[in-house]
Specification:
Number of strands: 6
Radius of gyration: 18 Å
Helix content: 10-25%
Structural class: alpha+beta
Length: 129
């Protein structure tokens, strides 16, 4: 099989690629407007809602044990081809959120990156808020 054949197969695979996983809503963080607690004005966040498909699994018990207390019962592991913005207190970013089965989740822990063919696969851990 030469390079031309591999190119044709790769193009066919792109055409027939079906979304895998469960439907979710990704809440993409856009901006924050600081409130004034002395006047009773709350901080306001601006979000963009995007529909997507992700693979959701529960965190395994061994991952909870070896995480040093970072992961808890009820946390979920999410695999997606989409890079999400993490929460960063130092930079003042809230990070992107996930709405799955009617509940909102935020990112915790580290982001794992792996490569499958020409696709980048990101693995996140989310906690219900």
């Amino acid at each position: 099989m030469d390079a031309a054949d591999k190119g044709i197969i790769r193009e066919y695979m792109k055409e027939f690629r079906q979304p895998m996983g469960e439907p979710v809503i990704i809440k993409v963080w856009l901006s924050t407007v600081a409130g004034d607690p002395t006047k009773g004005i709350a901080t306001t966040f601006t979000w963009r809602l995007d529909a997507d498909f992700v693979v959701v699994t529960a965190i395994q018990q061994k991952d909870m044990i070896y995480s040093g207390g970072i992961y808890q019962l009820g946390d979920i592991k999410v695999n997606t081809t989409r890079k999400l913005q993490p929460m960063d207190d130092a930079a003042g970013t809230v990070g992107d959120r996930l709405v799955w089965r009617g509940h909102e989740y935020r990112q915790i822990g580290n982001i794992d990156t792996s490569y499958v063919n020409e696709y980048v696969l990101y693995t996140y851990v989310f906690r219900r808020i």
